[in-house]
Amino acid sequence: MRDFSELIKQRRSMRKFTEEKLTQDQVVKLLRAALISPSSKRSNCWQFIAIDNKEILEKLSQCKELGAAFLKDAPLGIVVLADPSLSDVWIEDASVASLMIHLQAEDLGLGSCWIQIRNRYKSDSMLSEEYVREILDIPLQFQVLSIIAVGHKGMDRKPFDEANLQWEKVHINTFGGR
């Protein structure tokens, strides 16, 4: 493993991917990272749908008006969903799992980008979640949080510039510093 501080500086959202497919080992490592992510009371309320079918990725890339089109060019999409009946903090648990996928992707030298599904719309009359649910035949008990696009990086992104850290947003002991 690289130095974690360097890994998180390097990890940037990637919306362009090469056509190179992921290896089975890479996909297994991404899913393993998701499955070992922490969850409240170890409820493991999350589930994951790994998609490498180009037709399905194309359909999913239309799940919202803006911000998902690049999914059609990714070799892999991982849909992150959870069962709210198993955990009242399913959003947090699924978010942590999503982040674990991003960090594992970067550690493998891959790019990734979060596509927000929860509380987003495909159109005025359809939630993104309803659209994704129909395409993937997801049972009603599950809520869809996100889709993580993953692939070989199709562009260079500069690491995060620490000169842009907003230290003024860090407070010690109290918000007002009393």
Summarize this structure as a short list of keywords or feature phrases.
alpha+beta; globular
Describe, in short, the structure shown.
Helices cover 30% and strands 20% of the residues. It has five helices and six strands. The protein has helices spanning 4-10, 24-35, 54-60, 90-107, 128-136, and strands at residues 46-51, 76-82, 110-116, 121-123, 126-127, 143-152.
Could you give the topology of this structure?
Layout: H1 4-10, H2 24-35, E1 46-51, H3 54-60, E2 76-82, H4 90-107, E3 110-116, E4 121-123, E5 126-127, H5 128-136, E6 143-152
Antiparallel strand pairs: 1-2, 2-6, 3-6, 4-5
Helix pairs in contact: 2-4
Description:
The protein is an alpha+beta fold and 178 residues long. Helices cover 30% and strands 20% of the residues. The chain is built from five helices and six strands. The protein has helices at residues 4-10, 24-35, 54-60, 90-107, 128-136; strands at residues 46-51, 76-82, 110-116, 121-123, 126-127, 143-152. The strands form two sheets. The chain has a four-stranded antiparallel β-sheet with strand order 1-2-6-3, with helices on both faces. It has a two-stranded antiparallel sheet with strand order 4-5. The chain starts with a helix and ends in a 26-residue tail after the last strand.
Amount of helix: 25-40%
Q: List the secondary-structure elements in sequence, H or E.
A: HHEHEHEEEHE
Radius of gyration: 17 Å
Spatial sequence of strands, sheet with the most strands: 1-2-6-3
User: What is the overall number of helices?
Assistant: 5
Beta-strand percentage range: 15-25%
What ranges have pLDDT less than 50 throughout 5 or more consecutive residues? none
Structural class: alpha+beta
| Average predicted confidence as pLDDT | 94
Global geometry: globular
Describe the largest sheet: 4 strands, antiparallel
Oligomeric form: single chain
First and last CA, distance: 41 Å
The tally of strands reads 6
